[in-house]
Amino acid sequence: MKFLVIRFSSIGDIVLTTPVVRCLKLQRPDIEIHYLIKPQFKSVMANNPYIDKIHILQQDWNAMIEELKAEKFDQIIDLHHNLRTLRVKNALKVPSESFNKLNIEKFIYTRLKWNVMPKVHVVDRYMQTVEPFGVKNDGAGMDYFIAPNEEITLKDIPASHHAGYIALVIGANYYTKKLPIYKLKELCTKINHPIILIGGKDEVDEGNEVASVDPIKVYNACGKFSLNESADLVRKSKLVIGHDTGLMHIAAALKKQVIAVWGSTTPSLGVEPYYGDNYLYQHAKPFNNVKVEKLWCQPCTKFGRNKCPQGHFKCMKNISIDVIVQIVDKRLGRV
Question: For the chain, which has fewer Cβ within 10 Å, the N-terminal or C-terminal residue?
Fold first, then answer.
């Protein structure tokens, strides 16, 4: 049998689908797994050994559909469930199982602040799409694979950080999911440990400003490394501090300790760091969610916004940096 799994974007959402791919492959070895993804996110799944072939969402729609038709798929697992995936399913005309995005529940929660979301992580909701094939969640959490040629060596980071460092992921796709620069500078000033700032090319200038508080203690790696190289920096860190971003989910997939800082979104949407039941049974809770409690306007979105709709941005401005530092010290064994 041949299955097509669809998840176009983005980094975190794709990583969250990895238990589906692994469990399907290991529990149904008779199934050949193909994965359809946007070209800019191919590297997220490029090294995944449970995927037999990756297909790219192309601008030439007809050419892409002909390519997919030639594979003669037996089943589609739609983990994105939007209009474009509907077009794919209609074109291929094979049976499909689709992820329930709970858009109505999310609308009620973000607009009316009435939390009607089920207390089920999005990973477990993804897994429901493969239950009809006798596939169960194996409890092993998420996966992230880094090729040997994408690994970071000591020569790639300052000698001051060779003995260990904290990875601070400063980037996010939306303004309302990011701590303001002044808060990041306060955090780096108060943490007594080497720090590597991680982000893309868009965060280079912000990283330089944050690192200016102590250029020896804080190394700005933003824009210097590829996604998978940045993931390896995360893998080699002592712990990770980050926003609701793809690298936060990658850190959880790599079984790192995570301090997740939440702004306009919330872990109650079913997207907190996910490690799998087996890991949690054997280890102390490896993550902390840090958010402003009892803030009436949170969450204001399921994705993020380019500006605070209320104008005050209290969800990030009122985050206690001292609380984050206390958690860091505890996780480093200092208290």
Answer: C
